[in-house]
Design a protein that fits this description.
The protein is mainly β. It has 3 helices and 10 strands, in the order αβββααβββββββ. Strands 1, 2, 3, 4, 5, 6, 7, 8, 9 and 10 form a 10-stranded antiparallel sheet that branches.
Length: 242
Amino acid sequence: MFRSTVNLSVKSALAISATALSMMSSLQAAELDITVQNLTQGIYFTPILVSAHSVDASLFELGATASTELQAMAEGGDISGLVSLTDSLSANNLINPAQGLLAPAQSAAGMLSTDDGNAVLSIVAMMLPTNDGFIGLDNWAIPSEAGTYTVYLNAYDAGTEANDEVRGSGMPGMAGFPVPGPLAPLLGEGGTGLDATIANATVHIHPGNIGDDNESGGVSDVNNTVQRWLNPVAKVTIVISE
């Protein structure tokens, strides 16, 4: 479910004090021009959800079990569940600004108007090819001053599927990752699977793809020279109007 924010102190550089939270709860509406850039060499992003919402909710939390809606996004790129949940909380959403997959080195942009009280920004999108990897921004405090702000996003693992790195349907609870059209010719096929266990069943920093160099077998369908990455994996530029 759409989770309550219970421990903001663990949100690394994005942590905010109780005083700041109180001030943000009365934040006035804002106009945001948001650009998401894919910084990877060979990873695609599925439809992106950008959500401005209240400070007492979160799309995901590090160290917590993923919701079923987050699992659907992280394993199959389906953001509809998260959209429904954020809509029910009167969040302001920018949905799928790339109008499909966001390719390596490409950018997608859109405008987001926020209502009073929607004082933090969250972003998620599945990373392909991965089993349950996603880009994530968790409850970034929207500044009250106009200007241009830059945030870099890490890759997270939802902890819901073993990282076997083989083709599959992308259905929650099923092994393997989905393979949309543009990705199909870039992958190997017939891999036996790297891992069948989940070592960490909570949301955590993604360990990265391993891959191999066998296009018609081996242990992985991921190319070990192309579809690997180091954090950060995405750059977000937020322009707040006067």
